[in-house]
Write a structure and sequence with these properties.
Layout (H helix, E strand, L loop, with lengths): L4 E2 L3 H10 L1 E4 L3 E7 L6 E7 L6 H22 L5 E7 L8 H20 L1
Helix pairs in contact: 2-3
Length: 116
């Protein structure tokens, strides 16, 4: 399965936050916005300054990107649309298998939202 495209512009992130659905887990916060006509998943990653300095934030963002990459590689994307993964303070210390299960839950929510 092809890797998700990226959300890069602030307006794209704000659109998902405004119109999308939020999924909260211990390792991350996911915002999902299904797009029924679209065939791809676009993903964005963000971590606030509350989490730490730039080194910590970048490491947290890299962990989120890798977790999403592995989950998509193993299981594929259940649906199409936009998703934003927001790193939390617990993201950097969360065991990687649990972080992957958090990402799975966000992707499943994307599939559920599209079905409704």
């Amino acid at each position: 399965m092809k890797q998700p495209d990226r959300l890069k512009k602030r307006s794209q992130f704000l659109r998902v936050a405004r119109k999308g659905h939020k999924v909260v887990s211990p390792g991350l916060i996911g915002q999902v916005l299904p797009e029924p006509g679209d065939v791809t998943v676009r993903a964005g990653f963000t971590v606030t300054k509350k989490v730490g300095n730039s080194v910590v934030r970048n490491r947290t963002r890299r962990r989120l990107r890798e977790a999403l990459r592995l989950v998509v590689k193993e299981e594929g994307c259940p649906s199409s649309g936009d998703l934003v993964l927001i790193g939390r303070a617990a993201t950097r210390k969360r065991p990687f298998p649990l972080l992957k299960s958090d990402v799975r839950r966000v992707l499943q929510a994307l599939g559920r939202e599209e079905a409704e």
